[in-house]
Amino acid sequence: MGSLPFRLLSVTVVLGAAQLISGYSFNNCIEDPYSKGSFNCINRKEKKISAVINDLPPSAINLTISKNHLWHIPSKCFAHLPNLRHLRIDDNKLSIIEQSAFQNLHQLQCLNLSINNISELKPSLFADLHNLNFLLLTDNKLKKLPEGIFSTVLKLNTLIMRQNLLTNFSGIAKSVSHLTKLRKLDLCSNNLTSLSHSNVSLPKSLTTLYICRNNLFTLGCEHSFLRFIQLLDLSYNSRLPTTAFQGVDLRHINYLRLRSTSVKVVELLNISNVNAEYVDFSGTGLKNDTLLMELCKLLKKKVKWLKNMGLSSNWIENLANNTLNYCPKITGTLDLSHNQLKYTNCLNFLHGQTHIQNFSAEHNHLTSLPSCKTQNMVYLKNLEELSYRYNRILSVNSYAFYHTPNIKTLQLNINTIAFLHRKALKGLKRLKTLRLDNNLLTDLFNNTFEDNLNLQILNLRNNRISVIFNGTFLSLRNLTILDLGGNKITHFQPSGLDGLKSLSKFYLDGNNLRQIDTSLYRVFQDTLTVLDLQSNQIRFFTEDIISPFMNLSKLSDLKLDGQQPYGITLLPRNFFRGLYSLKFLYLTNNKISHLAPDTFDDLTGLQFLTLDKCCAGVTQLEPGVFKNLRNLNRLIVEDIGIQNFSKEVFGNLTQLSALQLNRNGMQTIEVDALESLPELHYLDIRNIPLSCTCKNSLLQNWTLNNPNVQVVYFYNLQCPHDAKHKFYNFDTQVCYIDLGEYLFFSTAVVIFLFTVTPLLYVKLYWKMKYGYYVFRSWFSEQWRRLRDEEENCKYDAFVSYNSSDEQWVMDQLLPNLEGNGSSFKLCLHHRDFELGRDIVDNIVSAVYGSRKTICVVSRNFLSSEWCSLEIQLASYRLFDEHRDVLLLVFLEPISERQLSSYHRMRMVMLKKTYLQWPGSDCTDPTQAQDLFWNQLRRAMRTGSRLVTEENEREGPEETEHFETSDENHYLLP
Fold it and tell me: Which residue ranges have biased composition labelled Basic and acidic residues (predicted)?
């Protein structure tokens, strides 16, 4: 840590050790950086809501908890958030909400519980929600409402319970009858069969009632039950008959929707007091002229003027020229959408309805719009809006709108128009909005828009236009928005954009432009504010170019995202020269190889910059690259692979409030760089491999103790090399050690070891080797497992011998201890060692898994390192654990001189009685050998716990052992 002093103050050490969690970050939520107090907790893995919101502050005002796996809301879950105004818990898996779940939410105004699995509401669930005015319960499994469920939410204004399983309207009416401020009740898509009620009435404030898509077969309500309702939607109740309305007061209805019911509207108007002007006749089966004329005649008897007439979804195929003459005068909108019309015949069927202002024939089967400059044509001079969207129109012929000269909005989008006659739009001098998007247009001509002098919005998105010819927009001096996105434009002819003197927003995204021609923008250099060039094929091969934006002095929004197929790879040094007014710049999804220090120098007014996935190979941002962006408010530098974050790069961003650095390669973040951003409130460093080392100890301390900067999901950041540990609490105590003192002692130790180790190696080679094996066994936790009580031992004795003495062991020792009536179980290395296991581990297991160790000593035994290890381990148990476990059997006489170098064995012989195998030179070898085996069996049967001096002071134990002597003692037969 080059910038850390060798010794920090003791206060700093205490802070580093305590790791007090006071940082401004949340485990499962993110506070909106531009809306203080608004939190989003979306797509989290937690199944308990407490884990999601427990760390939120009491100042939270808006809270969204969506798309999680939550199924249960416990009592008092939000008690620590008393200031909540809006709460969304939608699109989860909620099935249980406890009675007091929303306790203490006295300020809550809006509650959204839609798209869950709620089947039951507790009676007092909303008891504390005294200020609730909007409640959304859409798409749940509610079958009924408990009595008094809304008794305390007296300010409730809107109640939406769509897509549930409600069946009892009377219970619903009773629940809301006291809500004097309720204005809207939505019960669509339930299982209601009638509006029957028992001695209850709807609140007078209720004006909007939606009961669409139920199973109503009758209204079943009293005469005055709906007297205050103004908007009543009964559509898609296919069993609802006309007679259901008989005797029901509908005088205040100003919109009645009966789409896809069994109601016969002519009969309805005869038997009810509904105002005919406010009935929507869409989807009421008026599919032929006879029925329509009958309706019109009846309407004309009731009213002379009709504001709107909805006739959509009636399967109307054709209208005679005089059909609508029988209707009252329509002054507003005539809607013939969603029918089967194949021809419009220049709207001659509107003869006598020349006062119409809006006409819609969307979603029909129209295939062409004919020329309308003919005799006997009906002029609709009052028509201002005309829509033919969602048809199958292939061609628009000349003078197609000659009969509607005053329309201001023309919508021809979402058709298959491949041919637009040069004079198709002739005469539309008052047209302001023209939508031709999502068609198959390939060419625009210089006289296509010559009459559209007042056009302000022209949308040609998603066609097949490849070239903009000279003079195409010459007459469009008032055009402010031009959308040519999603076409195949490769270039503009020299005067292709001439005439666009007022253009403010220009969309060219998704085309095939390869370069930005500076001459294209000369005509609107003082007006253009938005330029969208994303998803084109723009590339540069040299840095020495003149800025194409030099004269766009008012441009505020520039998009250059995702150039195809490779993206911008070379960004010229002067590319953004002259864009002093630019506020928003998008460079995402490119492959820029280098960002020069002066790249953004002219962008002094920039407020938003996104470089997400913009670069390839830019591992280091050069110092000063953002030096002039002092007004930048939000910077997105995600997933570009940078490995540095320093004050030299980011230090001048004094107005920056939100910084997104996630998915980069930096291992450290300099705290002094963060401290140079005084307005920073939002920092996203997710998916960055920040090392959990002393290099980041200051960063950890800064984030934990900075209450002003929200570090997104900081407490979830993992150490890159150990996912089990978190960045916020990795140990930093070692970072505060006096480095000089530490280096002195470590150096001294190293010198000492290099000096002493060779001496120890020469003098204590064997002990060191033995110690290594013992430590190795201890480290693998072998000894702990094997230090059990002797009754748990697997063998009675482990036999340690040299391979040259194997014949004696097999011919003499094994038959006499395991055979001949003896019941001992011996462990022999060639027979009982585990295959594939380390030799040392096998030896340790054998010594500690046997009550005794029999060492068959010979001259060959003394020269074997493995045999020496075995006797060392056995003697360790003898001396250090005070267990009588070692039996020495000498196969041949060995002199004092030969034993002098085996110190450990000599210590054993001084403390332990040992046995000498009687040779063939004895007087009576058979008798001597029988005595030998009796003595050995007796020694095998003794206990293993020795009596020490400490044991004798505490009291005698019943242990059986041989007498010991200060001299070697041979047990002879």
Answer: 947-973
**Cis? peptide before 565, omega within 30° of 0:** yes
pLDDT for residue 945:
53
Residues of the domain holding 844:
788-971
Q: Letter for the amino acid at 876?
A: Y
Q: How many CB atoms lie within 10 A of CB 173?
A: 21
Burial of 80 per CB tally in 10 Å (0-12, 13-18, 19+): middle
SS3 call for 330: strand
Question: Does residue 848 fall inside a structural domain?
Answer: yes
Examine the fold and report which residue of 489, 512, 535 is the final residue of a domain before the chain moves on: 512
Q: What CATH number has the domain bearing residue 497? A: 3.80.10.10
Contact 484, 460 (CB under 8 A): yes
Residue 469 in any domain: the answer is yes
Nearest alpha carbon to residue 186 among 167, 212, 153: 212
Region 947-969: mean pLDDT is 37
Q: Are residues 753 and 894 in the same domain?
A: no
User: What does the pLDDT look like over 90-100, one tens digit per residue?
Assistant: 999 999 999 99
CA R_g for the chain: 47
Domain limit, last residue, from 512, 528, 560: 512
- What is the rounded distance in angstroms from the CA atom of residue 574 to the CA atom of residue 596? 10
Neighbours of 696 (CB within 10 A): 24
Q: Are residues 755 and 868 in the same domain?
A: no
Sheet strand arrangement including 419-420 = 368-369, 395-396, 419-420
Q: Could you tell me if residue 530 is inside a domain?
A: no
**What is the identity of the amino acid at 781?**
E
Note the pLDDT tens digit of each residue in 618-652: 889 999 999 999 999 999 999 998 998 999 999 99
Q: Are the C-beta atoms of residues 365 and 336 closer than 8 Å to each other?
A: no
Listed residue (90, 34, 39, 98) closest to 67, CA to CA:
90
CATH, residue 880: 3.40.50.10140
On whether both 758 and 809 belong to a single domain, the answer is: no
Cα 657 from chain centre: 23
pLDDT tens-place string over residues 678-701: 999 999 999 999 999 888 888 988
962 in any annotated domain: yes
Spatial distance between the Cα atoms of 847 and 845, rounded to a whole number of angstroms: 6
Distances (CA, A) of 462 to 349, 388, 421, 803, 847: 33, 17, 19, 91, 85
